[in-house]
Each structure stands twice: as structure tokens, then as C-alpha cells.
Amino acid sequence: MESIGGFVSGSVEERLRQLDLHCAEDSRPKYERLRSFIADEVQNGRLRVGTALPSEQQLAEMLQVARTTVRQALAELERGGVVQRKHGAGTFVNEAPTSSRQVGLDAFALVVPGAGTGLWPALQAGFQGAAAELQKQILVCSSENNLDRQANVFLQLIQKKVAGVALAPTSLPLTPAFQVKHLQDNGIPVVLCHRSVKGVDAPLLAIPFRKVGRKAGELLVEHGHRRVAYFAMHQRNEAGVGYEAGLREVLEGVGSGLPESLTYWGETVSPDANTQTEAVRATLRRMFDGPNPPTAIMASFDPLAERI
User: Fold this and answer.
1) What does the DSSP assignment read for the chain?
2) What phi, psi does 24 have (nearest 5°)?
3) b/e per residue, 274-301, with b = 16+ CB within 10 A?
4) Which of 10, 91, 164, 242, by CA, is between 20 and 30 Å from 207?
5) Contact 29, 203 (CB under 8 A)
6) Is residue 100, in this structure, part of any structural domain at all?
7) Of 158, 178, 205, at which residue does a domain stop?
């Protein structure tokens, strides 16, 4: 590789242009693939000390990815001491790149609506196990499904300069894109869990809600149930609507359907099912006091099932 005026040229730039970050066979996030490529180029001596990398915008256009993807990759490289970012000058291969040099807290954060309820303890256990394999510390933060609290958590994580955030966004109200982009703009990679955030370019690990609803319906029908009630803990959010749609498809397929009289939608955004005890009790009384009560119930959330 030739270095002209300290800037990348020759074979490395050609290799960058040929780098396919859209390859479906590689399951890693795009920013991680870019980070790995540049780190390897430095490790193998093809990118020399002091060499300036193309700008974020140039790399984004060259690789046909979002600028936030490039920003996350460069932030990870800077965190590992591979590159140095100089305000107003650009990004340069560090004089002494080393994986042990860190800028900020070498920890991953998990942000969830309710750390001790529903599926969140299981998510936390899996997250903790994966982080341990990478020898990373973790921070677990609860937003309590509150936008303001979630925003405050993000500010604290930015101040700590954590290595990455796994986020299960608030559901009601929905998390706005600018909150998540604030993390990304500060070089913190984000992985979305459970639900997407409109306008945010980030990997998503989501439950296939409709498919789960269908599976539950198939199992109930297999056991002879035709009159099934559906209880959703929250107002009509993405998860609840998906579960109901899948269940409804199966029940309609066997000629029974899912009438409105056999559905319950919670009126709260709280992750605490105890707040709905009285409303659930009244709905169950109405259903079972009627002439044709349900023989089975599907609940959208474990704590809600416990209340039922």
C-alpha cells in the first residue's frame, strides 16, 4: 500500500470499496464487520501509523451504509486504541494501537422496561452470560417504560462512555428515534431488542409475535379448545396486536373466531401486572358469568398470566 500525504490510497482503498457489508452470510452487525476489517488492516501493517482514514461521509458512500454505521465502527476502534479521532482534522491510525487501551467504561448496558418482570429476567440472564464470555461487565437499567426515565438513563450511559447498549425500547409512548440516535451519535453501538424504533438504523432481535400467537392457537386447538379468550397486558402495542392476530387466524381457521367479548386490553403502560388485578378480575367475572364462557385463555405477558 502506498501512503500519499498521510491518507489512505492504493490497495486498502480498493479493498474498502470491495468490502461487502450487505452480505447475508455474515450475521455480524455491519459496524462490527467494518471495525474488524480496519483493525485487521492495521494489525497486518497495510494501514500504517499516522495514516488518515476517509471521512465518515466518504466511507458511508463508499460502502453504501448509513453514516451511523461508520460512526459506530470508528468509535469502537478509538475505544480500543486502534485509531485516534482529532476534531476538525479526521481519524488517524494510532501511534500505539493496542486492544487494552480503553476510552470509557468497558461494559455493555442492557436497558429494559422492567428488570424484574416478564421476559426481562430471562433476557438479562442471557445477556449476562454472553457478556461474561467476552469478559465484559454489564449494567442493567430499567426505564420503567417511561420515556423521561429512559432519556436520563441514556445520558448517564453516554457520560460513562459504555461499549454498547442493548435496548428494549419503551412501548407506550413509543421511543422516538432521536433518543436512540443520541447514543449512536456519541459512538455507542445499539442493538434493539423486542421491538424496533422507527427511523433508527440498528440490528433488531425481535420476537415473531404473530408466529407465537399462531403457535399458541395451534396448541390450544390441538387440545380441543375452540372458545379461547385473549388477554393483553398493555394497550394495543406491536406485541399484543401480533399475538392476537396469530391466535385469531388459527381460531378462524377452525370456524370459531375470536370475538371482542373474549378479549381484554390493559389500560396501563406500567410493567407491573398488579396494577391491573381489579380490571382483570372484573373481565373474568363478565366472561365466565356469561352463557358461553371460554375454555382457555392466552395471555400476552407472564405476570398477567399469573394474575389471571
Assistant:
1) --EETTEE-THHHHHHHH--TT-TT--S-HHHHHHHHHHHHHHTTSS-TTPBPPPHHHHHHHHT--HHHHHHHHHHHHHTTSEEEETTTEEEE-SS--TT--SS--EEEEEES-TTSTTHHHHHHHHHHHHHHTT-EEEEEE-TT-HHHHHHHHHHHHHHT-SEEEE---TTTTPPHHHHHHHHHTT--EEEESS--TT----EE---HHHHHHHHHHHHHHTT--SEEEEEEESS-HHHHHHHHHHHHHHHHTT----GGGEEEEEE--S-GGGGHHHHHHHHHHHHHSSS--SEEEESSHHHHHH-
2) -70, -20
3) eebeeebeebbeebeeeeeebebbbbbb
4) 164
5) yes
6) no
7) 205
**CATH classification at residue 76:** 1.10.10.10
d(CA 31, CA 162): 16
98 found inside a domain: no
pLDDT, tens digit (0-9, with 9 covering 90-100), for 24-59: 777 778 888 888 888 888 877 778 888 888 888 988
Domain count across the chain: 3
Domain that holds residue 176: 107-205
User: Do 118 and 42 sit in the same domain of this protein?
Assistant: no
Q: Which of 160, 161, 247, 238 is nearest to 193 (CA)?
A: 238
CATH number of the domain to which 148 belongs: 3.40.50.2300
Residues 70 and 123 in one domain: no
- pLDDT single digits (tens) 58-102: 888 888 999 888 888 888 888 878 888 888 888 888 865 444 444
pTM, 2 dp: 0.56
- The answer to whether residue 99 sits within a structural domain is no
Boundary (domain end) residue, out of 49, 65, 93: 93
